[in-house]
Write a structure and sequence with these properties.
Strand content: 5-15%
CATH topology of the domain at 122-261: Nucleotidyltransferase, domain 5
Biased composition (Polar residues): 8-19
Region (Disordered): 1-48
Order of helices and strands: HHHHHEEEEHEHEHHHHEH
Shape: extended
CATH class of the domain at 122-261: Alpha Beta
CATH architecture of the domain at 122-261: 2-Layer Sandwich
GO molecular function, one term: nucleic acid binding
Organism: Enteractinococcus helveticum
Pfam families: rve
Length: 334
């Protein structure tokens, strides 16, 4: 603290938490020693003696009670007219001797790797998923297979089937690759079709990197989830589709509007088609000319009489962009 070392760096060097450092500094400022307990505490009057503690542990370790919980032991002995100590004291003694643990077999799930993907141009990373469309009656659903480019948000493929199978998923992906080319990475969640052997074999044969979301983490597939939300929040989205043909016609219209009319805030309010096919420079020029003309005509209508900054197309699209290292972390690494 006297050397003006940042508390985060001091914590890494000493192993002392920052709260303890602040508490010590405040105590020293008040004229204290900075110790958490400067005056030794006297032993509680109701504390068991060492001999009594050994006797309680011996009873707990006896063949009669070795497999019973302290609460059961306490009740049994009390019913026999014997009181050793409270249940909490039994647990405290066992804990002090590292004898309190979970006896049941608990499932231990391994830590999942967070997918970190980046696309700096169209055609590099594709994301796909399957969403359910309610059919004409309860229990009837149609499956919409949708794949899009995460950089441009352009939907490169969409088909609707009555079933979700690995063979249909494989045919769907092969068709998309035949039209728009083979990407570097294909990302999806861990559905049965996404992790199936036919899809895995297809991607392996084409030398495409296969990426999957973590279990139950929808944020790992944000672009597909965002497209499905846009779809299902449309005012004209029906509560139920009357037939498979109805669902297919609706999805065809949606894809057309999504690609060529819907403007995304994440890509500078361009349409996915403009970004995917490299037309954004022309659109930006038209926008700039219109804004410049309006500013010259009525500059007082703009904040600080300055021309607003143009909307920018991001240089990259990320799935789980890693946080940049802080200045303190950089100093520690050095």
């Amino acid at each position: 603290m006297e050397a003006k070392v940042p508390t985060r760096q001091a914590q890494a060097l000493t192993g002392v938490s920052r709260s303890t450092m602040h508490r010590a500094a405040q105590a020293e400022a008040r004229g204290g020693t900075g110790d958490k307990h400067p005056v030794p505490r006297s032993a509680p009057a109701n504390k068991l003696s060492a001999a009594e503690q050994d006797h309680v542990l011996a009873v707990l370790h006896s063949d009669r009670f070795v497999d019973q919980a302290p609460q059961q032991i306490y009740a049994t002995l009390l019913s026999e007219g014997t009181y050793l100590c409270s249940v909490s004291t039994m647990y405290r003694l066992l804990h002090d001797h590292a004898q309190v643990t979970e006896r049941r077999r608990q499932a231990r799930h391994p830590a999942r790797t967070i997918p970190e993907l980046v696309a700096t141009a169209p055609g590099e990373v594709l994301s796909w998923d399957i969403t359910k469309l309610a059919g004409p009656a309860k229990g009837i659903y149609y499956n919409a297979y949708v794949m899009l480019d995460i950089f441009s948000r352009f939907i490169v493929g969409c088909v609707v089937h009555t079933r979700e199978t690995a063979s249909l998923a494989e045919d769907f992906m092969a068709t998309v690759f035949g039209v728009y080319g083979i990407p570097k990475v294909v990302h999806a969640d861990r559905g049965s079709s996404m992790t199936s052997k036919p899809v895995t074999a297809l991607l392996s044969d084409l030398d495409v990197v296969k990426s999957h979301s973590r279990p139950k983490v929808s944020n790992d597939n944000p672009y597909s989830e965002a497209a499905f939300k846009t779809l299902k929040y449309l005012p004209e989205f029906p509560e139920r589709f009357g037939s498979l043909q109805h669902a297919r016609a609706f999805m065809d219209d949606f894809v057309e509007a999504y690609n060529h009319e819907h403007r995304h805030s994440g890509i500078g309010l361009h349409t996915p088609a403009d970004v995917h096919f490299g037309l954004t420079a022309q659109v930006d020029q038209i926008r700039h000319h219109a804004m410049h003309t309006a500013w010259q005509t009525n500059p007082e209508r703009f904040a600080k009489h300055q021309l607003p900054k143009p909307l920018q197309l991001p240089a990259a699209a990320w799935i789980n962009q890693p946080a940049p290292p802080s200045q303190e972390d950089t100093q520690l690494a050095a």
